[in-house]
Amino acid sequence: MTHSHNVPRRTVLAAAALTAAAPLAFAQQPPIRIGSTLALTGPLSATAQVHKLVGDIYVEDLNRRGGLLGRKVEWVLKDDQSKPDLARTLYEQLITSDKVDLLMGPYATGAILSAMGVAQRYEKVLVHHTLGVPSLAKYDKQFPAWSLGSDPANTTTNTVFEALAKGPKPPKTVAVVTSKFPSIHFMSMGARETIKKRGLQEVLFLEWEFGNRDFGPIASRIKDAKPDFVWVGAIGLDGNLLLDAMKKIDYAPPQHFYLYPAPGPLVTLPEAQGALSVTIFEEHPPFSSRPKAQEFIKTYRERAAKANFPDTSVEVQAAASFTAWQILETAVNATKGLDDKQIAEWLKKNKVETIQGNLRFDGPSNYGDDLMRIKQVQNGKWQVVYPPEFAAPGAKMIAR
Fold first, then answer.
1. Which of 66, 148, 151, 246 is deepest in the core (most CB within 10 A)?
2. In b/e form, how buried is each residue of 343-363, taking b as 16+ CB within 10 angstroms?
3. Domains assigned to the chain
4. Are 113 and 130 in contact (CB under 8 A)?
5. What pLDDT, in 10s, does the model give residues 128-170?
6. What is the DSSP string of 21-55?
């Protein structure tokens, strides 16, 4: 009799000892350090702040769940000031003097390419969340969380014009105005090709330097061209500045599209009603029904409100950032280690479950499928309107 009682008691004691030892081991082991930069200042800071908030949320939650490999995670973050050259220097520092274990990509294509060059020199894995020109990703240990496929200049732009063709007022004439920011310019050139292929007429083409603040002359030229649809190669606050300039001359475009706007500031502008953009995630089904999505939406909303963000909803930028952390965590846990070579090999052979869906990295430049959907500002909220199976419940594209 005593024997049968002793076994469970011993098991209970052993379990209790293990439970007590876990936090101790967690506290005693050196943390796993993940290094990255973000554009915390400069023209890209409005969007980079979103990525910082997501990283903070993710790392806190990761540590609550026991960290990585039973060790605490520490995020070593530096400000690249929206300057790709500075990002290069800082990633070099993160690897050589800060001796981080793993890397996470910065925000925006220019900085990502800088970070990628450094990662390649040291053979480190680089997961990144917003690279807009997949063909430039020539390093075999880089992995994208921005699911626009390997040929977005073709596939994503075609999705935009397909949505318009099936919308309430299919356009015949198009004005293309764009920033010269590399990824934006690349996509806008792709749009021009798609316009030609679809037999539409381009009535205006205009470019501006990245960081331009004077959109008056551009607004006037668009108004004079009288297009049915305006494609705006926008990044950061370009869309807001252009809409302000249009308002001053009493012009409202019939239909308008903004490529990668700073999400909050645009959606809250009354003139942005009907504005279109691209997305991989918005706060409604089917996106919000994916594992971890609801919990993330709730936490993000609370924290974004505290940080006084103009828009507290989780959309494309926040989702891409969250996805990048999910990719890194999954690969480290699957390989049970921090070996960059093993992590890279595992990612190329396996799918990762993320809030965007299951991602693969076995296509050209380690890209998978183009998961870009079309969203629209409707009554101060972003709603997916195309393809129909991803549209917000009851939402359809509107036009002036």
1. 148
2. bbebbeeeebebbbbebbbee
3. 27-150+310-372 (3.40.50.2300), 169-287+374-390 (3.40.50.2300)
4. no
5. 999 999 999 999 999 999 999 999 999 999 999 999 999 999 9
6. HHHHHHHHSPPEEEEEEE--SSTTHHHHHHHHHHH
